[in-house]
Amino acid sequence: MRKKIAVDMDNVLVDIEKHFIDWYEKEYGLRIEQEKLLGVPEEEGFPDKEAVKRFLYTPGFFRTAPIMNGAIKAMEILCKKFDIYIVSAAMEFPQSLIEKVEWLKEHFPAISWKNIVLCGDKSVIHCDYLIDDHIKNLDFFRGQPLLFSASHNIHHTHHKRLNNWEEVLNYFESI
Amino acid sequence: MRKKIAVDMDNVLVDIEKHFIDWYEKEYGLRIEQEKLLGVPEEEGFPDKEAVKRFLYTPGFFRTAPIMNGAIKAMEILCKKFDIYIVSAAMEFPQSLIEKVEWLKEHFPAISWKNIVLCGDKSVIHCDYLIDDHIKNLDFFRGQPLLFSASHNIHHTHHKRLNNWEEVLNYFESI
Predict the structure, then answer these.
(1) Using CB atoms and an 8 Å cut-off, which of residues 104-123 of chain B contact chain A?
(2) CA-closest candidate to residue A160, choices A174, A146, A144
(3) Which end of chain B is more exposed for a tag (fewer CB within 10 A), N or C?
């Protein structure tokens, strides 16, 4: 039986960190260096601490986000051997629901609607693997948790870390 | 640790069958008796076999659906002892995503966004119980499947059947 991989969207398929930096620059005229975001929650890396939260509730924010480097090629390869489920904690931002579905349809048209899960708390998700940037999602996961590197999570050490999509592919080739 | 109950929306929290009958009457001037829907897939119980599918894609259909009898009181009682997750296979109808969230917010305001899951295939959901009207969701469920009666499922016998919310309450009081 094919194993199931749950794949997070923001900071995994979606380069939401770059999108925060771009939107911040567009609105405030100030480009924040990525180093400022290292080891702190995303909203705290920016001079205006309210900006990130506001972006998250702004229509169009999720729909226009860029794709994470290497994600398209890696997903094409993984799809051949695994059942991939996209699992995004989108429920806090209801306007994002349709935007996330449309974003996936545009950038990952091979993913069926059957394999998309938009939720709040991910503790009720059961797959064999979860690739996610948030410890809160990985800590209670029943399968193998895989921490996808993002600036905010660089100090966490208690999960298997994969720094980018190339490392994800290497991991799944090695198991 | 509190046990988790996954609760389906259509035909469980939402009286979608009544809504189909009401919309059909409004559009075609013909009220279909519920007996016509017994033991057949929902779309086949109506003279125009395309009507149900069309309603499912019509903006406003899910948002205006009536609540299932007894659901509000039963959910209030169950919430005290169990963690309730609303799990709806909404992804086939993307326009329904925001409508379902808004419907829940109106009729079940106590349910947190953290406890809402909108998905395609429910096989990746893990809770202790699933209350659902569809065999396809219950057959692959890892916990205890509970079949909520709907006209289309009356001939199925291989899951524990609960005919209405009163029987749901009795079941959870008895275990």
Answers:
(1) 112-121
(2) A146
(3) N
